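Hey, can you fold this?
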Amino acid sequence: MKIFFNIVILTICLVLSGCTPEDQATTISFDNRISFSKFPAVVSLDSGTIIDTKTIGNLQFRVIDSLMVIATAERENSWKVRSIPGDSTLLEFISIGSGPDEFVSSPLISQASFFNGDGNIYILLPDNYRQQLRKIDLSKSIDSGQMESDVENNPRVNNFSVYSNFSDTNTRIFVSVNPSEGSIERTILKDGSELSLNSIQHLNQ
C-alpha cells in the first residue's frame, strides 16, 4: 500500500511540474516598461533581456512604403505619420470626441487596412461605435495637413465586430460575434455581394 501511495504522490508531482508555462516571454512585467515621447528612439538591451513580441504596443505602428504610421494615447491627433528617410512628422490626425470627423475612442492600427490605389495610399478604418467605415486618403491628407476622408455607413461594422479587413480589389472580410447564437460569424463580400463558400459555412457552424 505504501508503494502505491508513493507512486501516486510522485505522479502528482510530475504532472504539476509539467504545468509550468513554457513561454515565459508572454509574462507582462510592468517594472520593465520603456516609454518614449519623441521619435526616433534607440534602445540598448542587455544580453538575455526577454522581448515580448505579443504586447499590444507592437500593434500600434505600421510601415508602408517610406512612411511609418504610429498610434499614441493622445486625445488630439493621436495618429502620427512620419517620414522614415526624412526623420520628420508629416501629418498628425485622428482625434477623440463627438464631432463628425472624430472617433469615440482611438482606433487600433491593427484594425486598419492600408493599400495603394490610383497612385495614392489609402486607409480603410472601421468605426464600430458609429457603424461606419472611413476611407482616408493618406497621400492627400499629407499634402493638405488634415484628414481627408469619406464615410460609408455599414451595419456590418458594429460593437460585435472582432476583425475586418479590406483590399483595393473590393474584397471585404468581416468576423463578428452573433450574441443571439453565441457564435462567431465570418463573412466575405466581393463587389458588395456575399460569397457563399463551403469552407466559411463550415467555420460558422
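Oh, and this one too while you're at it.
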Amino acid sequence: MTSGLPEMHASDAERDRVAEVLRDAVAEGRLDMEEFDQRLDAVYKARTHGELEPLVRDLPVPGTGGPVAAPVFSSSSGTPASWAGRVGGPATSRGGFAFWGGFGRKGTWTVGRRFTAFAMMGGGEIDLREARFEDRDTVIRCFTVMGGIGITVPPGLDVNVKGVGFLGGFGDLTTQSSEPVAPDSPRVTITGFALLGGVGVERKITRAEKQRLKEARKQEKLAKKAEAARKELG
C-alpha cells in the first residue's frame, strides 16, 4: 500500500478510516485485542500518512479477503489519491426515509449498490465524501414530495445526475467543479423525481480537508518568505 504522500499530515477523517480497518480486523480474528489496542493507540498519535500506513499494511479491505487495505489519503486538490480502498464490503445502508422529519447518511458508511431515499414534508442528507461503496456501480434513487434531499459528493467522483423535478427541482451542481473525474473512481448514478420539492447534488471537500489545505497553503507561504529572506541575505 503506497499513498505517494508519506510525509503529508494525516487528517482526523483518515485516522478514523484506519481505526475502522483495525476494528474490522479484530472482528474477523486477524488481530488479538492486545495488538489492536497497540495499533489503535498509534493511530491517534500518528501525524503523517507515513506513520499510518504500516498500521494496516498487512490487513485486507474490510469485509473481504482481498487486496491490502488502503486509507484514502488525499492529494493537494482534495481528490482521493486512490479509490481502490473505498470499493467493496457489505453495505451498511440501502436507503433513507423521512416523513415530517429527517434522515442523514454521512461520515464513514458503506453505500449499497442500490440506495433509495424518500422524503415527504421532510428532508434528507446523503454525504458521500467519506463513504465506501459496496460496488463500483452505484445507483441512488431519490424521491421527494414537498420535501428535500441534499447529496454531497467529493471531488473526482464519477457522478451522473438524471433526476426530474415537477413544480420542484433536481439540481446538479457537480458540473461547476473543474476537478477531473478520477480514472479509478466508482460510478454513481443519481436519479429520481421531485414533486413540490427538490434534490440538490453538489461537490465539496470535507471540513478536515479544507483545514489541511489551508494549513498547507500557510506553510507554502512561510517557505516562500523564508526563501526570499535567504536570497536577500545571500
